[in-house]
Design a protein that fits this description.
With 196 residues, the protein is α+β, with helices and mostly antiparallel strands. The chain has 6 helices and 10 strands; from the N terminus they run ααββββββαβββαβαα. A 5-stranded mixed β-barrel has the order 1-2-3-8-7. Helix 4 (136-142) packs parallel to helix 5 (155-171).
Length: 196
Amino acid sequence: MLIDDVSESRPPDRGLRRRSARRAVAALVAVAALLAPFAAGADARLWGTVRAVTGRNLLVVSPDRGDVEVRLLGVELPEPPRVVSVGRAIEGQPFGPQAATYVRDLLMERQVQLDTYGKDRTGRLLSVVWLGEINVNLTLVKEGLAWLDPGLTVPNVRIPLELAERQARVGKYGLWALPDPEPPWEYRKRHKLAPS
């Protein structure tokens, strides 16, 4: 009887095992993609629509949190022209208006993903902003429209920005085409301006 039982048993369906294994791998990849910002040190991942842009500050409307004030983490845009007091206007830095326009045109009324890394002293979420597969923070530096913030301490954000800034300098992109571009923090200090 044992011999009959063995002969009637069927070999396992290898196709079924392969499909199950593929599904398991796909599920693990999806979970890893969702958790990647947390493994890299991000506090949270949010989605929302950009409703306002002022330089590197955004107002994002999130379905989960409502209105969220956001600051682009790790980048410093050139100072745009601004009025500092009655009768006193500052013309701003070269590429200041172009950088502000670039960010506004790229993000206004678009859905973005935010990888957040805490808050600044005014309560804005410090974030790496993603427009689909585009890392907006990194793109600004690559295009020569922003400096790496020297105070940035988040290694997984800082290292790619350092490389992008080096490439922009060598390629003389944007503000790096100028003979001696002045960083915005030095410009603000020289003109006694508060950060925007």
